[in-house]
Amino acid sequence: MLKRIASTGVNLVVLGVSVGIFLVAFIALNALGAAQKPPTISVLSATRNLNIGDVITANDLAVKTVFQDDNASLYIPREEVTGVVGGIVAQPIGNGQPIFRNAIVAPAAEGTRLSAVLA
User: Which of 35, 71, 87, 111 is in Cβ range 3.0-4.6 Å of 104 for a Cys bridge?
Assistant: First the structure.
């Protein structure tokens, strides 16, 4: 059968052109898809469920990549991790959920923690 196909050179030319068009279309679609991806930022997320009043430790935090959109400013960026450790959870945070800026109260002295949680 290969001899028969090889003897008709037209079939090989058509096959070669088809493969070439497929490769060009595949590369063009991949480039177009990559160009349309929105920018991303790295934000802090919870590694476990955090309840109101929990004190955040470094083990409770992970870095998650999210798309940079209108809501991205609501999350705590990765660069602010040192300001979050020792903070108190003011709103419940689910496992894997990006942490909102208003979900954490800054670290405080022992006597003021209850008032910070109630605020």
Answer: 87
Say whether both 50 and 88 belong to one domain.
yes
111 and 59 housed in the same domain: yes
Domain count along the chain: 2
Q: What sign results for the dihedral spanned by CA atoms 69, 74, 80, 84?
A: negative
- Indicate whether 89 and 103 sit together in one domain: yes
- The pLDDT tens digits of the residues spanning 8-36 come to 667 778 888 899 999 999 988 888 877 77
Per-residue pLDDT tens for 98-118? 999 999 987 655 555 555 455
What does the CA dihedral 10, 11, 12, 13 come to, rounded to 10 degrees?
50
Q: By residue range, what is the domain housing residue 106?
A: 40-118
Q: Are 78 and 42 in contact (CB under 8 A)?
A: yes
Residues 24 and 55 in one domain: no
* Burial group, residue 113, by CB count within 10 angstroms (0-12, 13-18, 19+): middle
